[in-house]
Amino acid sequence: MKNTRFWVIGGVILVVVIAAIIFFVNQGNAASSEFQTTAAVRGDLLSSIGATGTVRANQSAELVWQTTGKVESVNVVIGQQVSSGEMLATLDRTSVSQNIVLAESELLSAQRDLEDLRVSNQGRAEAELTLAQAEKALEDAQKKVDAIGFDRASETLIENKQAELDILNQRIAQTRQLYNSVASLPTGDSRKAEVTAQLTSLELQRDQLVAELNWYTGRPDDNDIAQRRANLEIARANLALAELRLSRLVDGVDPVDLAAAEARVAAAQATLNLARVSAPFSGTITRADPLPGDLVTAGAPAFRIDDLSRLLVDVSISEIDINDIREGQEVTLTFDAIFGKTYNGAIVQVGQVGSDSGGAVNFVVTVELTDADELVKPGMTAAVSITIRELEDVLLVPNRAVRFVDGQRVVYVLRNGELQALTITLGASSDTVSEVLTGELQEGDLIVLNPPTIFAPSGPGAGSGPGGGN
Questions:
Q1: What is the pLDDT of residues 251-285, one digit of tens each?
Q2: Could you tell me the domains of the chain?
Q3: Stated pTM of the model
Q4: Spatial distance between the Cα atoms of 152 and 215, rounded to a whole number of angstroms
Q5: Are 383 and 52 within 8 A, CB to CB?
Q6: Distance from the Cα of residue 407 to its chain's centroid
């Protein structure tokens, strides 16, 4: 009887023990099933920076009317390709101001004068003549200056002139004696008149000879010397100007005269252009407002032209990330307006000066789409992802699994059914995963993606926070 009771009691105890074991195992399995887990793996990581921007054309221009008038013709439509300088629309000549109408005549006149200037040799011929005259004037002036320090005549010439003067004085003295002998004769007497004429002629010859002799034996005064030297400097200056003028005409036209003639043509053309709208560069007409017959005023919109040969996106990059950006880096772009399609691009310009916006310093980075199609249009919003680093075979952890605990980054894992907190240090990150640089996390560990935010006092403390980053 006792043996039977013993076996009954033992059996009850065994059942209780087995039930307890089953209960606790089921409890552990239930706790484990509450968590979402993924195995820690090694793999490749593309570290990127995300930003948004608006698509713009390589070049854009809003064209407006420059004057008031009536639209005569419109030569383009939306979507049409135009070339630089192509005329897009014009105003009726009878509806514009008089100065614009007269500009056409002025333009023709200025173009004719410019053509004459380019083909005529008159300017060079005049310059050569002026140069020859300047050279002769300089030669004469130099001779006069050179004569300042030299005798004006040889001693022989002076002696001869002096001898002629002595002989002439003797003849005058003899003639005067003869005149004295007939001086008492009546005024109309022929003998008196003949002697008087001889005496007067001889005295005139003497005066001229005295003047020549004085000049031969004299020296120029200070005023004469200063005048001669001044004339020499003027002659030199005139020669330099003549040479400069001729040097400008090596190609037949004075560049100053040519520039002035071209300016007249440009001014007349600019006035004439007030009555028309032309394309400032090659591109596509993306807006066309005027219609023939419209009355327009200065400043009224006419067309918009965009160079769609290149599509660009300007994005703002934080000063924290700007040093990881360089020209030529590849990017990917997605658009809310274009579902399910990813485009490629490259960085073509990195801003060198940041701007402060709300306490944050950002730099403008320009991205060019390299495979844009007709679906991408200026004005669309683009999400840009810039790949800044590519890592191979690194230990990865999902960003959503990383938490901050006591100022450190931790990740929770399940080991033998128990939740454990492991401290880790992160490196490069992408949108979804980060590189594990150091820590106790090992490849194959079951990482908990949704760890609880509150634990029992005996369990690990926890908090939530962003993952990724250093």
A1: 666 677 778 888 988 888 888 889 999 999 999 99
A2: 47-56+310-391 (2.40.30.170), 66-116+264-299 (2.40.50.100)
A3: 0.53
A4: 7
A5: yes
A6: 51
